[in-house]
Design a protein that fits this description.
- This protein is mostly helical.
- 76% of the residues lie in helices and 0% in strands.
- It starts with a helix and ends with a helix.
Length: 107
């Protein structure tokens, strides 16, 4: 459900803003998290790349913060997400590789 995705994104963005030393409210994070579904509506941008940050920058003044804070928070959240996916992919790759090796050793 889109509501659940926005809430999850809101919590992630809130944690990112706290991580960069900003006093952020969950409502600010919710406003910025709305940039994801808005950017997704324009399907010609792969993954909303760049557009999500632009929309977050445009929505940031609604929550009384500068556009640079909104765009940077969304960009950092995106980078953290990509890093988490890379770690997960490496763990799966390593698990598959180790599983194949143990089969060769025992067989």
């Amino acid at each position: 459900c889109i509501r659940d995705r926005v809430m999850t994104a809101s919590i992630r963005l809130w944690l990112v803003m706290i991580g960069i030393g900003m006093e952020a409210s969950l409502s600010l994070a919710m406003v910025l998290a709305a940039s994801g579904p808005i950017a997704f509506a324009f399907g010609f941008f792969p993954g909303g790349l760049g557009l999500q940050e632009l929309v977050a920058g445009a929505l940031a003044p609604v929550a009384a913060v500068g556009p640079e804070i909104g765009a940077a928070s969304v960009a950092i959240d995106r980078l953290v997400g990509y890093a988490a996916m890379a770690v997960g992919a490496f763990a799966v790759w390593l698990g598959v590789r180790m599983s194949g090796r143990s089969k060769r050793l025992s067989g």
